[in-house]
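User: quick one, fold this
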Amino acid sequence: MHEITLTNISYAYGEQTVLEDINFTAAAGEFICLLGPSGCGKSTLLRLLAGLARPTTGTLTLDGKPINGPGLDRGVVFQDYSLFPWMTAGQNVVLALEQAFPGKSRTKHRQTAQAYLEMVGLNDVFHKLPGALSGGMRQRAAIARAFAINSPGFAHG
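Assistant:
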């Protein structure tokens, strides 16, 4: 199902209102693009959907359940990649998998991380540090990490 609904969402940073009276529903499979000038609240809205911030007013639901915090049912790829610079691309993905699926074996986590890195075209970066990757490659490693923890059926079977 995976329907996201925003009802009367507003958000303020202190006295500054960034979002006001946002209402929409997005169904599974829909593609939505947020467009607007810098500072208009696009990233704030994404943080709200990820559960990393709470709206000042209104409700956010996923499949009819309130979004009250982060969850494995949603993934976020940050603008700054959020990769630990002292860990390889593969280790960054494995760490997320270990947190999301603590009952799985280390071997399974490594296989899954490699599969998702390959899925985003990063076949040979498992052992490379983020500093050795281009910006686009770091972004794809972050995407692989988000996909891996949000699609356990792919390689966790």
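User: anything notable?
Assistant: The two ends are 21 Å apart (CA to CA).
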